[in-house]
Amino acid sequence: AISNQYPFINGIYIDDENFIINRQRAVETLNEIINKKETGELRNDLTFQCRTRTDNIDSEICELLKRAGFNTVSVGSESYSKEELDYLKKNNSPEQNLKAVKIIKNSGLNVAENYILYTPDTTADTFYENASHICYNIGNLNVDGTATLFLTPLPGTELWGSGNYEVLHDFPYKNELFKDKVMFKDLKTGYEYIG
Questions:
Q1: What is the Cα 121 distance to its own chain's centre?
Q2: In what order do the strands lie in the sheet with 192-194?
Q3: Most buried residue among 17, 43, 70, 112 by CB atoms closer than 10 A?
Q4: Among residues 191, 147, 184, 181, which one has the least CA distance to residue 168?
Q5: SS3 category, 152
Q6: Terminal C-alpha separation, the chain
Q7: What is the DSSP code (8-state) at residue 54?
Q8: Which residues pair with 144 in a beta bridge?
C-alpha cells in the first residue's frame, strides 16, 4: 500500500527492537519481500532498514537482507567493554559485536551501530575501552555510530527496579536539549534517569 500510494517514498524502516529475534518470522518476511519484488507487486527500488542484536547476525541472514533490498542494519552493540556488557546482562561480547559488524559489511550492507556510553558501572578504563573501539569502527570500518548518553531501563530488567519512581523537582539541566524533561529516581536502586 505504501509503495503504491506514496511512490515518492523510496525506503521503509522496520522499527522493531530486534527484527531478527524470531528468525523464522524474519526469514518468511524477507522471502515475501523478495517474492513480491520478483512478481512486480513491490517496487524493486524500495529499500529497507532494520534493527537487531549482534548475536542474531550471520552470513545467511545478511544475504537474505541484501536480496530483499535492505541497505542498512542497525545493531545494538551497546558497548565494547566486557565488564559493561556483563553489567547490562547482554548475551554478547565485544568480539561478537565486531564479528557481526564485519559480517554485515562483508555482505555489502551498511551498519548503524548503537552504543551506550555511560552505565552506573562505567569507569574511566571501561569508557576508554569502549570509546577506542567505537572510534575504530567509525574510522576504519565506516560504521555509522550513534551513542546514547543516558541509560534507559526497560520494564522487567534489573535496572528497572520496582518500577516506582520519585520525580526530582530540582532538575539540574535547564537548556533546550532537556526542554520538558524531568529527572526521576528509582526508589529501589537509587539510580536517577531523565525522561
A1: 20
A2: 165-168, 183-186, 192-194
A3: 70
A4: 184
A5: coil
A6: 35
A7: G
A8: 112
- 0.85 exceeded by pTM: no
User: Residue 166 is placed in which grid cell?
Assistant: 520519585
Torsion of CA 119, 125, 129, 130, to 10 degrees: 20
Give pLDDT tens digits for 53-92. Answer: 999 999 999 999 999 999 999 999 999 999 999 988 888 8
Nearest to 54 by CA among 139, 113, 119: 113
> How far apart, in whole angstroms, are the C-alpha atoms of residue 80 and residue 18?
19
Interior angle at CA 148, CA 105 and CA 59, nearest 5: 20
In angstroms, the CA 97 to CA 133 distance is 10
Backbone angles phi and psi of 97, in degrees to 5: -60, -50
* Residue bearing cell 537474505: 64
Whole-angstrom Cα distance, residue 173 to residue 96?
36
- Tally the residues of the chain: 195
